[in-house]
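Handout, tutorial session.
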Amino acid sequence: MIFLGILDSNSGDVMSYRGPDSSSREKQLEQRIRNLSKNLERAEQKIHELKKALRESQGENKKYQLNLEKALSKSQRLDDLMEELKTINERPKAYTEENSKN
């Protein structure tokens, strides 16, 4: 009973060279290797998908952050303009009060 297994990294298949009589244990091990290889391929694919999703999410997050900064900047500008408008509205009132006293 001789078993030499070589894992073909491109296909994930096990190429085996056996003697004339292979045991059921060897067949089980061979099947286990195939299953592990398939699981590894699936895991690598899932990792690739998750990395892609993470990059997309980070890009969307960056866009959201930039939009938020723009909105905050506009909000601050509006606040400044409101203060300026308030100041302008108070000047004529103060001017009118001074003139009415005279």
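The second record follows below. Compare its token runs with those of the first.
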Amino acid sequence: MRKRLDDIENNFANWTPQPIQVAESELINLPDHLRKTYVVVASRGECDAVAVSNQTGRCRAIESNYLNQLSRMGWLNKRRIAKTVHFRPMTSGNVRRNPLEAMKN
């Protein structure tokens, strides 16, 4: 528990968010729970489910589910580093942000 609190404290102390390159009209299309997760990933640049859960206050399993949903919808890229999966915002050239298009696949 103490390690998690220290991690949260360090994240806030060193937090330098990057500007999000997504129009507000596109973000509004995301449900609230996914938007909160996406904003954390976009502000950090790249992170795993543990880092996102430390920021949002939700458990890691829920954040992992939300991150995978965002990845399937075309909002995030994911890559495996050892045993963890890291997520980062999709580059503008590869974006597929239409939820109906994502459901077809």
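Points raised in discussion: The domain at 2-15+30-104 is CATH 1.10.10.10 (Arc Repressor Mutant, subunit A).
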